[in-house]
Design brief:
This protein is an alpha/beta fold. It has a single domain, classed as Leucine Aminopeptidase, subunit E, domain 1, CATH 3.40.220. Helix content is 39%, strand content 19%. The chain has a six-stranded mixed β-sheet, sandwiched between helices. The radius of gyration is 14 Å and the shape is globular. Bound molecules: ligand AR6. Ligand AR6 binds next to β2 and α1.
Length: 170
């Protein structure tokens, strides 16, 4: 499995699946969630309405509709509450659950945003470390090498630098 990081807007990614940092209603919001829903069009919201929400740390998959991506994997990151409320394992679980869905649906290339690093307030260095660790682990655990490419699409420079550090630290 290859891990890549780029700066940019995840909604323009031509990949098998883009991951959405959603909230537990799965009915849209601001940040990357708002951008994905705007770019995918109203059919995405219509499909999300049928899912009945999603608990923190889990993931659900839908079509990509007007996005260049085939699927959207919606996951709900933890709100940062100081670090001793299970935030790291919930964040890791978002990645593990998303990777499992990607594998089930035969997604070769998957793009992730920096889950929980916006309004949910997760400190960037800690998020980068937990995120990279979780993806590496689930990449190793897979029976086949799928997804083959995991790409973080990082909107802002601070996130990009945090991921760069986490990737070179190991
Ligand atoms: N492409 C890639 N990354 C983006 C984009 C984009 N188009 N837009 C923003 N980001 P956030 P969270 C980055 O707040 O912290 C929503 O309202 C952003 O700079 O979108 O998990 C949901 O409905 C940041 O680095 O997600 C939830 O209520 C990262 O994406 C809540 O926000 C995540 O920021 C989830 O909060």
């Amino acid at each position: 499995m290859r891990i890549e990081i780029v700066r940019g807007d995840i909604t323009t990614q031509e990949v098998d699946a883009v991951v959405n940092a959603a909230n537990s209603s799965l009915l849209g919001g601001g940040g990357v969630d708002g951008a994905i829903h705007r770019a995918a069009g109203p059919s995405l919201l219509a499909e999300c309405r049928t899912l009945g929400g999603c608990p923190t740390g889990e993931a659900r998959i839908t079509g990509g509709y007007d996005l260049p991506a085939r699927h959207v994997i919606h996951t709900v990151g933890p709100v940062w509450r100081g670090g001793d409320h299970d935030e790291a394992s919930l964040l890791a679980s978002c990645y593990t659950s998303s990777m499992a869905l990607a594998r089930e649906h035969g997604c070769e290339v998957v793009a992730f945003p920096a889950i929980s690093c916006g309004v949910y307030g997760y400190p960037l260095a800690a998020a980068a470390e937990a995120s990279v660790g979780a993806v590496r682990l689930s990449g190793e655990k897979g029976p086949i090498e799928c997804p083959a490419i995991v790409r973080w699409v990082l909107f802002d420079r601070a996130c990009f630098e945090a991921w760069q550090t986490a990737l070179t630290a190991r």
